[in-house]
Amino acid sequence: MDNPQIWWSDGLHFACLGCGRCCRGEPGAIWVSEEEEIIIAAWLNLSVEVFRNSYETRRWGPLSLKEKCGGDCIFYNREGARCSIYPVRPSQCSLFPFWPSILATKESWDRAATLCPGMNEGHLFTALEIESLLRQFPASIPSL
């Protein structure tokens, strides 16, 4: 990729280390689309209505997953340091750290990398791979 406007045109390194830092800690919203609600509810063997009442909030505006006290995602299991709905987790989770807000500037990437030890490590994602991931980021998710 030859676009000098894109600071990550040479690609970025990332490897998920499974530390769970992106799932716990400070409060934030994990947005859930209607399609994701259906998939997660089915995974949990719940109706969408029960799923919404038990696991979602409008604290941040649009529907998002609830948090435990302290900011952990409701589906984060500290004992195993794992997501209990990992195979069906929301796209916001599966696309981290390739979010438009994190990729906006090198400074925002570097700021996020202070919290995520897998950023700047491991697999080199090419600019084409990053662009593909950005296209997968749901337009319905408010700016992060």
Describe the structure.
The two termini are 26 Å apart. The strands form 3 sheets. This protein has a two-stranded antiparallel ribbon. The relative contact order is 0.24. Helices cover 31% and strands 12% of the residues. It has one domain (12-136). The mean pLDDT is 90. It is of the alpha+beta class and 144 residues long. A hairpin with a 4-residue loop joins β4 and β5. α1 (34-43) crosses α2 (48-55).
Summarize the structure.
With 144 residues, the protein is an alpha+beta fold. The protein has 6 helices and 6 strands, in the order E-H-H-E-E-E-E-H-H-H-E-H. The two termini are 26 Å apart.
Helix and strand run: EHHEEEEHHHEH
**Number of domains as seen in the coordinates:** 1
* Average pLDDT reading: 90
Main sheet characteristics: 2 strands, antiparallel
Radius of gyration: 16 Å
Distance between the termini: 26 Å
Helix content: 25-40%
| Oligomeric nature of the chains | single chain
List the strand order in the largest sheet.
1-6
Low-confidence blocks of residues: none
**Class by helix and strand content?**
alpha+beta
Task: Please report which band the strand proportion falls in: under 5%, 5-15%, 15-25%, 25-35%, 35-45% or over 45%.
Answer: 5-15%
Number of strands: 6
Q: DSSP helix count? A: 6
